[in-house]
Write a structure and sequence with these properties.
There is one protein chain. The chain is an alpha/beta fold. The chain is 43% helix and 21% strand. It has eight helices and 13 strands. It has helices at 10-22, 33-42, 59-68, 84-92, 105-121, 152-163, 171-179, 191-205; strands at residues 2-6, 26-30, 47-50, 53-54, 57-58, 74-79, 97-100, 126-129, 132-135, 140-143, 146-148, 213-214, 220-221. It is elongated and about 55 Å long. It starts with a strand and ends with a strand.
Length: 222
């Protein structure tokens, strides 16, 4: 999973980022309105953690921006504001969940995981595609019931492909998913071919069908 933390208090953002990273979640941060708008304009996220109080703008305006662009990123509000009016406005503008500060990081992680499961995998803790089964919490991959050892990037790639199995994905989209905004600094996105080659090889060896195809001029799909 890849998330964006929009939070002006850098110690809070760092705490969330460190905790989530230890749990296998890729995190990016924005500490003000301008940074946040740049991120959401240029990247897609499984979930956005949004603080309403920013030094140079309003979190509600970010919600409006997301919806005006028809972005489908999940949004969890993390705010010290605890009024009914604030909650109602958040949900009316498209937020998916609301968590009042202070909160436990473990609860935030569970809520974020639940939101992503609802949006991407119909709420299931298991992702199933043909003979491939992925247990989301334990990060276990099974092919025909037999455990398959994948690296973290290979697992992230497999989940991304399965979650987009009816789409043609560009190299840039895959690179951005695997590397986040660091992908913009890379001279080439050809590194994804190595990950795809290794993933296909491991799946084939385990007895999986050949579901990852390359469209000329485009990128592999599942």
């Amino acid at each position: 999973m890849k998330i964006l933390i929009i939070e002006d208090e850098q110690d809070i953002a760092q705490s969330i980022q460190s905790y989530f990273k230890d749990n296998g979640v890729k995190c990016e941060t924005a500490h003000n309105y301008v940074q946040a708008i740049h991120k959401i304009d240029n990247y897609d996220y499984d979930c956005i953690l949004l603080d309403l109080g920013l030094p140079d703008g309003d979190g509600f305006d970010i919600l409006r921006e997301l919806r005006s662009k028809d972005k489908t990123d999940g949004v969890i509000i993390i705010s010290a504001k605890e009024t009914l009016e604030t909650r109602l406005e958040s949900f009316s503008l498209g937020a998916d969940d609301y968590l009042t500060k202070p909160f436990h990081l473990a609860e935030l992680l569970v809520r974020m995981q639940a939101l992503v499961r609802r949006r991407n995998f119909k709420g299931s803790n298991s992702v199933v595609f043909q003979e491939i089964r992925i247990e989301v919490f334990t990060k276990t991959v099974l092919v025909n019931g037999q455990k398959l050892e994948l690296t973290r990037k290979e697992l992230n790639l497999l989940l991304f492909l399965i979650g987009n199995n009816d789409k043609v994905l560009s190299k840039a989209a895959i690179a951005e998913h695997l590397s986040g905004d660091m992908a913009d600094m890379l001279d080439s996105h050809d590194f994804i071919y190595a990950h795809i080659k290794n993933l296909k090889k491991k799946l084939a060896k385990a007895g999986s069908g050949d579901y990852i195809k390359t469209v000329y001029g485009e990128a592999p799909i599942a």
